[in-house]
Write a structure and sequence with these properties.
single chain, fatty acid metabolism, six-stranded mixed β-sheet, Flavocytochrome B2, Chain A, domain 1, about 450 residues, fatty acid biosynthesis, transmembrane
Length: about 450
């Protein structure tokens, strides 16, 4: 094995050496579920067993098995020194001196310039969060929830006030979703246990969901955005076909689970109204029970206990169920349009083994900045900057955006910015385009 000898059962190099020396071809051969190596800063690690204990989920590591994971490692781990104590026992060797630092199609110049940009952003303090910003955001979420209940308790349950209550709860739930997204990505407070506890509180007690479920799903999306079979956000369960590759494949194979040429029409009846109240709700509950996330389950149950304790005395059991279902229905529309406008119209394909900047830029776009767009989308209108720097607090995206745009211009990489309405419209346009590709392949190939 590249001068390193064979591996022992413990995963360490044999042949009497303390570490092996490997080529990229050798590293790339270890990319199966039961045999996973990754490269970080030219060092080779056997992550096969560790992947099961990885806080971000085993699939994130599996998606980089046999690859250079230096850039994604830097993106997700703001404190590399802390992580080293976990990496050290996994070290099995390093790349041979004759091997390049990058694998496959990755551009060394882009990687170096992006590393420089990230270092400059760190020196400017752009990765330091302002706790007051997030505390105020949490305060307006709690205030909306309290006002919704107080309004009904004080003035009664007529349909106008009920509708207003539902809207206020929808806004609160959506904003809580963006806030838990923040705490899932970054350290707002210096002590990590407070960040961990607040994430559990926001996603569990304020939303009734699971922190572990979100972490394991969402980190995959960031690690391999819009990559078929690796990004769960584009796993459409054969209801939709996306991009330019998947529709043609389905058409050639005569796969017709749905009339995909009409997917841009039935999208309105399926995705926005059903994603959160049906699919996500079922998936979250199933995941917490099947994977024994009992702490998450307790946190989520406190949400339902609080909600029904507040609203059953006002609406009764049936009325309370109807209200929460309507809120989930409205929130689902908000969530789908905001999250999909940045990704669905972009490149969706199989693994291309690109550098971090190129991969993220091809799968993300921005929506114009405004006070409303920032608030409405939880600053995910800066989706490009968020994907490039997932641990950067959202209030600093606009500061790093000009530097990112300049770097993209240097290498001729498109930096797309749309209006909010154009972003929404492009979701439908992309679905129609993909459906037409499917129909053409289905009928003629």
């Amino acid at each position: 094995m590249g001068g390193g000898g064979q591996l022992t059962e413990s995963g360490k190099p044999g042949g009497g050496r303390s570490a092996g020396v490997y080529t990229w071809d050798e590293v790339q051969s270890h990319d199966s579920k039961t045999d996973q190596w990754v490269v970080i800063d030219r060092k080779v690690y056997n992550t096969t067993e560790w992947a099961k204990r990885h806080p971000g989920g085993f699939r994130v590591i599996a998606h980089y098995a046999g690859q250079d994971a230096t850039e994604v490692f830097s993106a997700f781990h703001p404190d590399p020194a802390f992580v080293q104590k976990f990496l050290k026992p996994l070290l099995i060797g390093e790349l041979a001196a004759s091997e390049p630092s990058q694998d496959r199609n990755k551009n060394a110049a882009i990687i170096q310039d992006f590393h420089t940009l990230r270092t400059q952003a760190e020196r400017k303090g752009l990765f330091r969060a302002r706790p007051l910003f997030f505390c105020l955001h949490l305060g307006h979420i709690v205030l909306l929830e309290a006002l919704a209940w107080l309004m009904i308790w004080r003035w009664g349950t007529n349909w106008i006030l009920t509708l207003l209550c539902a809207v206020m709860l929808t806004v609160s739930q959506s904003q809580a979703g963006w806030l838990q997204h923040d705490f899932g990505h970054l350290s707002v407070f210096k002590k990590s246990r407070w960040n961990h506890l607040l994430h559990k509180f926001i996603i569990g007690h304020l939303k009734g969901a699971s922190a572990n479920w979100w972490n394991h799903r969402h980190f995959q999306h960031h690690a391999k955005p819009n990559v078929i079979r690796k990004d769960p956000d584009i796993n459409m369960l054969n209801i939709f076909v996306l991009g330019e590759t998947q529709p043609v494949e389905y058409g050639i194979k005569k796969i017709k689970h749905m009339p995909y040429n009409h997917q841009h029409q039935y999208f309105f009846l399926v995705a926005p109204p059903l994603l959160i109240p049906i699919f996500f709700h079922f998936q979250i509950m199933k995941t917490m029970v099947s994977r024994h996330y009992w702490v998450d389950l307790v946190w989520s149950m406190t949400y339902y206990l609080r909600y029904f304790s507040c609203y059953i005395p006002l609406y009764g059991v049936f009325g309370s169920l109807a209200l929460i279902s309507f809120v989930r229905f409205l929130e689902s529309h908000w969530f789908v349009w905001v999250t999909q406008m940045n990704h669905l119209p972009m490149d969706i394909d199989y693994e291309k083994h690109q550098d971090w900047l190129t991969m993220q830029m091809q799968s993300t776009c921005n929506v114009e900045q405004s006070a409303f767009n920032d608030w409405f989308s939880g600053h995910l209108n800066f989706q490009i900057e968020h994907h490039l720097f997932p641990t950067m607090p959202r209030h600093n995206y606009y500061l790093v955006a000009p530097e990112v745009r300049a770097l993209c211009a240097k290498y001729g990489i498109p930096y797309q910015v749309k209006t909010l309405w154009q972003g929404f419209a492009d979701i439908v346009r992309s679905l129609k385009s993909s459906g037409d590709l499917w129909l053409d392949a289905y009928l003629h190939k």
